[in-house]
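[Q] Does anyone have a clean structure-token version of this?
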Amino acid sequence: MKNKKWLKPLIVVVVIIAVIAAAYAGIMSYLSSRSVSISMDDVTATVQALTSYLIPAVVVLVIALVVVIAAFAIKQPVRGLVRMEGLIAIILTLAITVNVICLGPEYSILNNLLGDTYTLSDETIAASE
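[A] Here you go.
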């Protein structure tokens, strides 16, 4: 196992990619059940609108991943601390980025998609006429 130090980071990356793929499949399944169609123009416009949020998040994630991978060269007592701090940085970056995006530019879209829809009953419409 000493010759395969690259195996643990590879497993972490594969698990992250699998989680992202599962989330994508779940979201697309949910959207298709609600009869929502997504065009490539919509995706491009959304990514361009979120660029100012995504670039700093990607930079922090890359730095944290480099620190976590570089921690394998550090001696044991400090290695665990550095790896945990890197993991906490990754989780916080993802949480803050998703929170800012969901409560900022994408709030109205998410509210329309996930919120309850209310309609006026026929009695109410007849009473207002």
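[Q] Thanks! Anything notable?
[A] Residues 76-103 form the longest helix (28 residues).
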